[in-house]
Structure formats: C-alpha cells, structure tokens
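[job 4417] fold queue: 2 targets
>>> target A
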Amino acid sequence: MARKGYDFATPVRRILIGLLGLCLLALFLFWRIDSPRAEAMRSDFIDRFVPSFEWAMTPVTQVSRMVSGLQSYSRIYQQNQELRRELREMERWKEAAVQLEQENAKLLAQNNVQIDPSLTSLTGVVLTDSGTAFRQSVLINVGRRDGVVDGWAVMDGLGLVGRISGVGNQTSRVVLLTDPSSRIPVQVQPSGENALLNGDNSTLPTLDFIERPENVRPGDRVVSSGDGGVFPPDILIGQVVQGSDGRLRLRMAADYGRLEFLRVLRSHPSERLEDGGALILPPEPGLIGPAMPAAPAARPADGDDA
C-alpha cells in the first residue's frame, strides 16, 4: 500500500489566513486612527486604488439597485392594494349617497306638491309590489295604528297613485289606478269636461264617458273631480294622450316604475246638518198666473123661501 506524502497545503493555508486576518486588523486599526497624517494617508490610498476597482464595484452597485427596486415595488404594490380597498369602500359610500339623494329628492318632491290645505297626509314606504297580470297594487308600512282608513287617496311626489283598499295594523294595501277594478271620476282641464278613468292593467288607462270628446285634446291636464266622494277634488292625475288604437288615454303623472314613498291623504267626511229647524227656509212658491175667480154663492131652494 502506497504511503501518502506530507501535506504542505494545510500549514500554508493556515499561515495565509492568519496573515490576511492580521492585515485586515491592521487596516481596521489604521482606518480608525484619528490623526492628520493617517487621514492624509487614507485619502491618498482611496485616490490611488478605489478608482481602479470601479469595475469590481459595478456588480455590487447593480445588485444594490435591484434590491432597492424590489423594495420599492413591494411598497408600491402594498400602496396599490390599499388604494383598491379604499376605492371599493368609496364606491359603496357613493352608492349609498346616490340612494339617499334619490330618496331625498322624492321626499322633497312630495313636500312641494300643492294640495288642499284642509287635507293632511302621512308618508309610507312601499314594502312590496304585488302587481300581477290581473291585479295592480302595493303594500306600504302604515296601517290602522297610524290612523289609516280604507278608501283614502294615495299619491307620490307627482300625482295620484290609487286608494287604500285593505288596512292592517301595521300595513295597508294600495290599489293603483291602473288596476282593472279601478273606476274613478275625473275632470279634464281647461275644458272642464267630466270623464271616467278606467284602469286596464296598462300604463295608459283609458278615458271613457266623456261628455263632449271634441273639447278634449292631447296634452290636456286631468285632475280628480271629487264626484261621489271617492277622491278629494283637484288632485293631479296626468295628461291626455292619443292611444295607438285611437282612444283617448291618460299618461300618469306618478312614476309607477319607481314607487318608493307614498303619501296617504287624510280625507275627512263632509259636515252634516242635523238641526234643520235652525235654517231659514225660502217661502213656499205660489201659483204662477192671475188669481182664480171666487166660486158663486149657492141659490136657496124653493121650499126654503116658503
């Protein structure tokens, strides 16, 4: 078996590592000496050797720039994610603000509608739309506890919508004017013609039984007439239009596609006169023409003369 020779590399390696450590320690101590001569020597050393090692510093500089870029990208990414979260939050707030603005506009529109000062009202929120192919009605969140009475008129911020038909403790049903069972007397302005508005389950109910149709033109204003005590008079309903079938129809002033807040009008019954004796009645009318002559006196019989 061959015998290995003496290993000279290990002692030499140890000596070189020791010398390198001593050189580095001496350089460190030299660099920490605070004296004018040492400072001058350090300046000369930097001016002589550092510019020649610029090629060796280029990779280090590039690596440091890459690290700085990665750190900057990480910060930008975090800021971008935070901005996205804030943007989504702002979009939610914007949607809520738009809805509140729409509700506020509708409530202001209801307050601006001019009605009879003797009529008071209360506002309800539409809970559900139960409109079907055979019935047009909605539910609102006011009922018997709020003093709602069956038959009261209901309007939105623009015009008449319908009437109360069914009252619960906390909710009420409103039958719309477009319901096929709805029949209300109306008046066309400015001609003053009376008519009957008939719901036919469409957005343009018909105007029937017009006294003089030649006096009614498209664009005329239609209001409630108050006949029969169904609705209070002079409440705006809509405008007259000419249907495709040639019949006169009504374009509703109320926005039936967006019924959110409804205004229930409190209708008070008219005052009844109970004590008729307190009235001053006109005199009874007499006969028309000259007075009739008096009847002649009866002649006595012959037996009476004897």
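>>> target B
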Amino acid sequence: MNNIKSVFSIKDLENLSGIKAHTIRIWEKRYDILQPMRTDTNIRLYDLASLQKLLNITLLHDYGYKISKIATFPQEKIPFLVREIISTKNAKNHAISAFKMAMMNFDQELFFNTYNWLIAEKSFKEIFRQVFIPLMNELGLLWQSDTITPAHEHFVSYLIKQKLLVNTEKLQVLKQTKFDKVFVLSLPMNEIHELGLMYLNYEILLNGYKTIYLGESMPIENLKDLKKHFDSIVFVSYMTVQPDKDCINEYVAKMTSELVDNNTELWFTGRLVEFINKEALSDKISLFDSFSELIDQI
C-alpha cells in the first residue's frame, strides 16, 4: 500500500494511455515526443510529467492531429490545444485522463476542478455513466496489471463516493412518488465493493422509489427483518468478488428460501452473475448483466 508509483515503465504508459508500447517507441525515435530516463540496463522509465504529456498527445491524436504535426508544436502549445478541445461538450476522454492524473498525483484539487467543469455541462447521472463507470472499469484493469497501487484506487474511489453521497442526499429529501414496492440494497458477506450498489441506490431514488440502503457484508437472516416493515420488497444485491463463484448458487438458493414469497423479488447484478445457474431460478429472481439493464427494469 505504501509503495506509491511516481516512475513508470513503458508498459505502464501503454496501460494508462491506451497507446501501444511499440507505438510509443516509434513516436520517441521519430519525433522525440518523450525523453525517457534510462536504467543501467537501458530500460525506459518515465515520470509523471511524461505521463501527462502522453495523455495530452493521445487526446490530440484522437481528435485528428497527426503525430508528425504534434511533434512540431512548442511545449506550451499542447496543453493549450487540449484546453480548446475540451471546451466542447465531448469531454469524456479528457475528463478520464484528468481523473487519472488526479489519481496518480493524489491531487484532490484536480479531481474537484475536473468534476466541477463536467457538472457545469452535464447531469450527475451523465457524469457517472459516461465518465465514472468507464474510469472505474479502467482502474480495475490498471490495478490487475500492477500499473497502479491499491492506494491510487482507494483515493479516487473515495472521492467518487463523496460525490455519490452528496447527490443521493439531494434525492432523499424529495417526496416519494412511487409506492408499489420498496428496494432494499445490500452486499453479501465479505463483499466490500459498494460503489456500484451506491449508484443503483441513486438511480432508484431518481425514479421516485423508497430505498433502504444497508451496504456491505449483510447476513441473509438480517434481511428477513425488513419483511416485517414493508409489504412488497425488491432485494437488490451487487456481487463483485463474493460469494465465491463455486458457492454462488448455494447462496442464491439460500436467499430464495429465506426471503422469496409472493410479494418479494431478488435482483442480482455484478461480475459474478454469469456464474449463477439460470435454469434453477424462481420467477421471482432477476439477473442483470449491466447497470442499464437493471435501471431499465425499475
């Protein structure tokens, strides 16, 4: 956790920018766009300034600038052109790059400035779907490839959670408009990845329903208590790493036997849904492969 990266390999740059290492090498050799440091064994290493420059160049390249042209620009012109591009509404790629840089530098100010710039043009729902979800998907891959540390991921995830909580609170003070069911949101035991569940809570509130958010590591027997208070319940569970895929059907069967009746439904989503045996399910159980599928069902 304390091994914070400030120097990157060319593979790290590939993972963070989406530009293949082979292409980065060609750009360096032909156009001198980056000046890597070298180890004693001649391995390329890059600092945060190089990462920032490559992310900016990537944005310009995506918008049609040829790399041969970019290479002729004075150093200060590249960020100037980036600012011109991001003044348009199509800001997704820049925002993701800016949030990555905020994460790599542990820079809260850059995170908030980027978010404030986005919220001036987009709704929170649009920001979460168009920017935060792709960003978190990328971070999962970056963590798996050891490009970022858990500290990086936790830093940016916490800031996103803050924004989710602020925007969720704005909905919680509004009057409920739909009364046919109540949504109870929880995570299985030892499942701690609650960002997705928090966003579903926001979306359900946005649709006018009452929600009961219980969060991580909720025992099934404790969920039964909710049935004493509400007549019609949809229990929503988001499963990323728990329960283990070898035990997931046993877990679903237990939830079904403990919770399901004529007035109760179970909705499951998350990465582990693909391991659930669909043929064994009650008609009171729904599986969703994505946020959008579940939200469309509300």
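[job 4417] complete. Note on B: The mean pLDDT is 88.
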